[in-house]
Amino acid sequence: MPNERRPRPHDIRHTHASMMLAAGMDMYELSRRLGHESVKTTVDRYSHLVEGAHARGASIADAAFG
After folding, report:
1. Contact, 33 vs 20, CB < 8 A?
2. How many Å apart are CA 46 and CA 53, to the nearest integer?
3. Biggest alpha carbon distance in the chain?
4. Which of 30, 26, 38, 1 is nearest to 14 (CA)?
5. E strand or H helix at 21, and its extent?
């Protein structure tokens, strides 16, 4: 079908990264898995997918400093 859009390798890679974050993989692990030179690249591209990251971070800090 001429109008059918097939997924590109990049689309599959992005889906994989999204699924790994949803399953609980952290950014550093994902960065290594994707082969990014810097974790900043991973954070810049995928941080919008990590719901509640700020609240979770605040909770961890609160528990640590109690």
Report:
1. yes
2. 12
3. 61
4. 30
5. helix 9-22
